[in-house]
């Protein structure tokens, strides 16, 4: 018996994307396998590592823990959506390169999503706030220090107004 498909329509990186998906298809599998947005990585597949992080209506979520049907009518931003419209790297992405905030790069899409969500909400985060924001994302390579420095550098370059 063939599986029932459900129509979904999701704004992904600013474009409306429609599909027909099985109820149990994860959001990360839809993004990677159907939309070919393979910047979002799959690691643990049970909500621990953060490699699959995307933004859902501006908030970071684990796309391995969501079904694609749950994203219907919502706004999803993947790591591909963080770059500038001309495809060049964003200030944050560039800062990761400059501070050596990545080595193998497996955690990097999730780290970028977590860090961008933080900077969107708080343009001048403290080091503790940065560590807290990326605390749910595992990195086996960097020791985290360079990632913290990347976010600090990006915040400095964007020079947000100081919060009282
Ligand atoms: S792959 Fe989703 S949290 Fe690890
Ligand atoms: S750079 Fe390798 S896991 Fe973070």
Task: Describe this protein's structure.
This protein is an alpha+beta fold and 164 residues long. It has two domains: 77 residues, Ubiquitin-like (UB roll) (Roll); 68 residues, DNA polymerase, domain 1. The protein has five helices and five strands. Strands 2-1-5-3-4 form a five-stranded mixed β-sheet, with helices on both faces. A hairpin with a 2-residue loop joins strand 1 and strand 2. Helix 2 packs across helix 5. The longest helix has 14 residues. The chain is globular, with a radius of gyration of 16 Å. The N and C termini lie far apart (61 Å). The model has no long low-confidence stretch (mean pLDDT 96). The structure holds FE2/S2 (inorganic) cluster (FES) (2 copies). The site of one FE2/S2 (inorganic) cluster (FES) has 12 residues, from loops. The site of one FE2/S2 (inorganic) cluster has 12 residues, from loops.
List the helices and strands and how they pair.
Elements (H helix, E strand, L loop, with lengths): L4 E8 L2 E8 L4 H8 L18 E4 L2 E4 L12 E3 L13 H8 L9 H14 L5 H7 L11 H14 L6
Parallel strand pairs: 1-5
Antiparallel strand pairs: 1-2, 3-4, 3-5
Residue fraction in strands: 15-25%
Could you give the count of β-strands? 5
What's the helix-strand series? EEHEEEHHHH
Give the biggest sheet.
Answer: 5 strands, mixed
How far apart lie the N and C ends?
A: 61 Å
Q: Which class do the helix and strand fractions yield?
A: alpha+beta
Strands of the widest sheet, in order across it, are: 2-1-5-3-4
Residue-averaged pLDDT: 96
Name the CATH class of the largest domain. Alpha Beta
Shape: globular
Second rung of CATH, namely the architecture of the largest domain: Roll
């Amino acid at each position: 018996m063939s599986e029932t498909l459900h129509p979904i329509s999701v704004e992904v990186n600013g474009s409306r994307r429609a599909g027909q998906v099985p109820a149990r298809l994860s959001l990360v599998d839809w993004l990677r396998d159907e939309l070919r947005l393979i910047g979002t990585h799959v690691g643990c597949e049970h909500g621990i590592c953060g490699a699959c992080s995307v933004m859902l209506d501006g908030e970071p979520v684990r796309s391995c823990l969501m079904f694609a049907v749950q994203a219907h009518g919502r706004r999803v931003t993947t790591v591909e959506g963080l770059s500038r419209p001309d495809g060049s790297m964003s200030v944050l992405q560039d800062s990761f390169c400059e501070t050596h905030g990545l080595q193998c790069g497996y955690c990097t899409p999730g780290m970028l999503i977590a860090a961008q969500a933080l900077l969107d909400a708080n343009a001048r985060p403290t080091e503790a706030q940065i560590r807290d924001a990326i605390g749910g994302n595992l990195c086996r390579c960097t020791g985290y220090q360079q990632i913290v420095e990347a976010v600090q550098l990006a915040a400095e370059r964007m020079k947000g107004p100081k919060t009282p």
